[in-house]
Design goal:
By secondary structure, this protein is mostly helical. It is built from two helices and two strands, in the order ββαα. The protein has helices at residues 14-20, 27-57, and strands at 2-3, 6-7. Strands 1-2 form a two-stranded antiparallel sheet. The longest helix has 31 residues, at 27-57.
Length: 65
């Protein structure tokens, strides 16, 4: 990827190396992304559970006028 003749991401780029966990997509890369996906899913499920608990504890979404 380059903009105005300046390479932003190359084969030796630190950003690409950090994301891939190496020079190519391999087992380490797949493990890293799988772990991140599971972690994000657990965080989302936790936030949804807290939201449902708070709605129920506070008596629902809408109150009578």
């Amino acid at each position: 990827m380059n903009i105005g003749g300046f390479d932003l991401i190359t084969n030796g780029s630190d950003a690409r190396f950090l994301l891939l966990g190496g020079r190519f997509v391999g087992e380490a890369t797949l493990n890293r992304f799988t772990s991140a996906l599971r972690g994000d899913s657990l965080v989302a499920a936790g936030l949804i559970a807290i939201h449902f608990w708070r709605v129920r504890k506070d008596g629902g979404i809408s109150q009578p006028l």
